[in-house]
Amino acid sequence: MDLKNLIWEQEGRVAIVTFSRPKALNALNEETFNELARVIDRVESDDTVGALVLTGAGEKAFVAGADIGELQALETSMAFVAKARRGQNLFARLEDLSKPVIAAINGFALGGGLELALACDIRFAADSARMGLPEINLGLIPGYGGTQRLARLIGEGQAKMLIFSGKPVTATRALELGIVENVLPAGELLAEAKKLAAELAEKAPVALALAKRAIHDGLATDMGTGCSLEAHCFSVAGGTEDCKEGMKAFFEKRPAQFKGR
Ligand SMILES: C/C=C/C(=O)SCCNC(=O)CCNC(=O)[C@H](O)C(C)(C)COP(=O)(O)OP(=O)(O)OC[C@H]1O[C@@H](n2cnc3c(N)ncnc32)[C@H](O)[C@@H]1OP(=O)(O)O
């Protein structure tokens, strides 16, 4: 892909996208948002891609937030609303991808950078990484979904601790809080994230997409409605050729060959 602030690589069925704005610690500007939207379109539509890994260029930062220079240039309250909605809508599209998205947090994930990671399905962090929502120090609050996703992920009190204080936490503390699912030595982070992505990319694509849908949409509703949604996703998966192949492969004691239908 022809990109300036992102680097697109593909290894087998895994797409690896690296945020690369070295002079701004990979901060998210409008141009990067436009490119991320194109990447999301590509991942969703490209059947050769079964999973996506996001990471940051360099050792210092994953993504150090929204571009503060662009925020400083905003002059009206409606401009701030538009800025927030732009990021919220883009991250919602990332979260809505039918394929698994793994964040490999290689360094600072601050503000919009952590909000980006929170819109991913699974977060791996380097043991040297630090993450937080420091917008309060700029007289702002998180604006790309961070107040909503973090509170749902780690609970209201812990989310308030991070958002009110603006203080970053270490990767180890992030693991304790449930912000990340794994912490690894920095030198092993990307390899392990790609390894998991490759494993997930070989699963039955429709079943994996339905599991993601049932979990995500179920959390937005009550248990009864969520279980009803699960039953319908279960039935759709049950009607796929891949389900028939999976069960046939089990009895024939061989690996299943899933085709995504
Ligand atoms: C809705 C979402 C809102 C938001 O996300 S608001 C922004 C939230 N993020 C932050 O507040 C983090 C801002 N960055 C920092 O606090 C620091 O950076 C770090 C702690 C990450 C690293 O500090 P250090 O090691 O001293 O590096 P350095 O000199 O501050 O940064 C290197 C260059 O990167 C630029 N930069 C860093 N973060 C951003 C950013 N978020 N937007 C624009 N530029 C950024 C700096 O200005 C500087 O540039 P130069 O070398 O020209 O002085």
From TrEMBL:
Pathway of action: Lipid metabolism; butanoate metabolism
EC code: 4.2.1.150
CDD domains the record matches: crotonase-like (cd06558)
Keyword annotations from UniProtKB, A to Z: Lyase
GO terms (BP aspect): fatty acid beta-oxidation
Top-level EC class as recorded in UniProt: lyase
Any Pfam family the entry gives: ECH_1
Protein name: short-chain-enoyl-CoA hydratase
Alphabetized SUPFAM superfamilies for the sequence: ClpP/crotonase
Membrane-spanning ranges: none
Record bears the keyword Lyase: yes
Similarity field: Belongs to the enoyl-CoA hydratase/isomerase family.
Subunit details: Homotetramer.
InterPro entries: ClpP/crotonase-like_dom_sf (IPR029045), Enoyl-CoA_hyd/isom_CS (IPR018376), Enoyl-CoA_hydra/iso (IPR001753), Enoyl-CoA_hydra_C (IPR014748)
Catalysed reaction, written as an equation: a short-chain (3S)-3-hydroxyacyl-CoA = a short-chain (2E)-enoyl-CoA + H2O
GO molecular function: 3-hydroxyacyl-CoA dehydratase activity
